[in-house]
Amino acid sequence: MARGGSAARRYAEAAFEIAGRDSTPDRWREDLTLAADVLGDVNVARMVTSRSIPFASRQAVIDRALTGRVLPQVHNLVRLLAQREKLDILPRVAAEYRSLHNRRRGIVPAVVTSAAPLTPAEDTALRAKVARLAGAEVDLSTRVDPGLIGGLTVRIGDRLIDASVRGRLERLREDLLARSR
User: Fold this and answer.
1) Residues with Cβ < 8 Å from 174, sequence gap 6 or more?
2) Domain-ending residue, one of 103, 129, 157
3) Of 167, 38, 144, 135, which Cα lies nearest the Cα of 47?
4) Residues 49/50/55/61 CA torsion (nearest 10 deg)
5) Other residues' Cβ atoms within 10 Å of the Cβ of residue 9
6) pLDDT digit string (tens) for 149-180?
């Protein structure tokens, strides 16, 4: 696992260097994410990673999936990963690239976990609120965890704000246990 993480980091750093040289860091971020999503589809992933399918056929699937949709340099990186049998690390490469990109631009990562999917209006309002809390632009990702019962949690960097029903119930239980001692 550590080797895959460090390999993903090395590929992301190389991609970030190329993107900086070409003045296309934002486009690389979008394209790496798109390539990871497209090739991460169960049916496509099965085709492009199966060793029972000739390599040329796997490359053809990658070419059909990405040509015209991503920068040629991103496409070349994906082809290189496939050639080296490392296509499985593409999502981690995209994530590492995103981290490098965010760090360079002073963007803080944040994760909001809610008990139910957010409406577009809630998402917009929450993004603005989290940006104010962070005091910076945020790269906000959202997740759904029905186990929260209600409310949400917000993780900004290493800070956690728990406004969930489950969190409130746990704090209430701890308070009651502490009083009963």
Assistant:
1) none
2) 103
3) 38
4) -60
5) 18
6) 998 999 998 899 998 999 999 999 999 999 98
Can you read off the two tokens belonging to residue 68? Answer: 């015209």
**Domain-terminating residue out of 36, 69, 103:** 103
The predicted-structure confidence for 79-102, as pLDDT tens digits, reads as follows 999 999 999 999 999 999 999 999
Identify whether residues 117 and 161 lie together within a single domain: yes
170 CB-near residues (< 8 Å, 6+ apart): none
Domain count, the chain: 2
Tokens representing residue 43 in the block: 């049916």
Alpha-helical runs (H) found in the chain: 2-22, 25-40, 42-49, 55-66, 72-83, 90-105, 120-134, 165-180
Structure tokens at 32: 């790496």
Look-up: residue for tokens 């993480």? 5
Length of the chain: 181
Give the residue numbers spanning the domain of 82: 2-103
**Are 13 and 42 contained in the same domain?**
yes
The model's pTM is 0.74
